[in-house]
Amino acid sequence: MKSLHIIRTQGGMTLAEIVVVVAILGLIMLAVTAFQKNIIVQNKFANDALSSAQDARIILRTMTRELRATSPGSNGAYAIAQAATNTLTFFSDTDGDGLKEQIRYYIATTTPPTLKRGSIKPTGSPSVYNPASEVISTLAYNIKNGTSVALFEYFDSTYAGTSSPLTQPVTVTNIHLVRINLMIDADANRSPIPRTFTSQVHLRNLKDNL
Question: CA-based angle 40:185:161, to the nearest 5?
Fold first, then answer.
């Protein structure tokens, strides 16, 4: 019985040893949990970035299509009503009904900044565009365009691929091509470098007027 008692004592663990083992296991669990959390966050950010890129391309395709069809308004107004760095208002038959809607793309100074689209349907005879009837929709959140990167850049008929954009304020009758630079951040709570999606469109219906 005595020898058996000695074996048990030698094969056991002291309280201090147990505390050390528990502490080590706790540290390992914390490290594994932190690693798993980091993987989840990185995967979410990657998915958000992919979704943001897909949304940006869809938005640019819509803007390009509507701009390409720019033409004088149903009230006889010139095709482009306003052309600023972060605001562009023009006329285009976006729904194919023969009437030219007044379309306005602009960055709203919300928190975070958002890209919005406004549309006004002409009414009456002669046609009138009532600002009170503008239908506004939000296209994208976390817009990062600022003074350094304009949402819209404008070029005249001399544009050859490397020309500088027209300086503000722009004379709308000089605009031949519009470049869109959509700078968007997939996650406003992080601080990566925002991605910029660019497209440009010739205003085909205005070529003879330049």
Answer: 135
Per-residue pLDDT of the chain (210 residues; tens, 9 = 90+): 444 444 444 556 787 778 888 888 888 888 887 777 666 555 555 555 545 677 888 999 999 999 999 999 999 999 999 999 999 999 999 999 999 999 999 999 888 899 999 999 999 999 999 999 999 999 988 888 876 789 999 999 888 888 899 999 999 999 999 999 999 876 655 555 678 899 999 997 775 444
Locus of tokens 């540290």: 27
The answer to whether the predicted template modeling score (pTM) of the entire model surpasses 0.85 is: no
Give the C-alpha separation, 178 to 157, whole Å. Answer: 11
At 116, is the secondary structure helix, strand, or coil?
strand
Side chain identity at 19, as an amino acid letter? V
Nearest to 90 by CA among 107, 67, 122: 67
Segment holding 152, helix H or strand E: strand 152-155
State how far the alpha carbon of 168 is from the alpha carbons of 43, 86, 102, 128, in Å.
42, 11, 22, 28
Backbone angles phi, psi at 37, to 5 degrees: -65, -40
Q: How far is the C-alpha of 78 from the C-alpha of 19, rounded, in Å? A: 81
CA distance readout (Å), 130 to 79, 101, 146, 191 = 17, 11, 30, 41
Q: Which two tokens stand for residue 14?
A: 């002291």
